[in-house]
Amino acid sequence: MADTNTRISTLVGDNDVVLFMKGTPLFPQCGFSSRAVAILDHCGVAYESVDVLQDMEIRQGIKAYSDWPTIPQLYVKGEFVGGSDIMMEMFEAGELKQMLDDHGVAKAES
Description:
Strand content: 15-25%
Shape: globular
Strand order of the largest sheet: 2-1-3-4
Number of domains: 1
Mean pLDDT: 95
Radius of gyration: 13 Å
Oligomer: single chain
Number of helices: 5
Low-confidence stretches: none
Largest sheet: 4 strands, mixed
């Protein structure tokens, strides 16, 4: 588990925005992951995605790492934000865009 935590820490630390999800941004494998991708795409930020279906150690490890039982999980500048429901609430309130702007997150390339 220590190796998995190190891998997760590296992913979270090396990228401004990381989405641990089921599937990929082009082919999400669940509705919650699809919603999370749509929110991030609408915000226009660059982000790294990790397909937990391709790595069972990451799939289980991310839940322990964040102490959050579900996937997807969003991290911004190393900070755990939440899952798709929290992302949706923050997006609708304008808080997610504000957080991304405040942290100076890079915009996605067109």
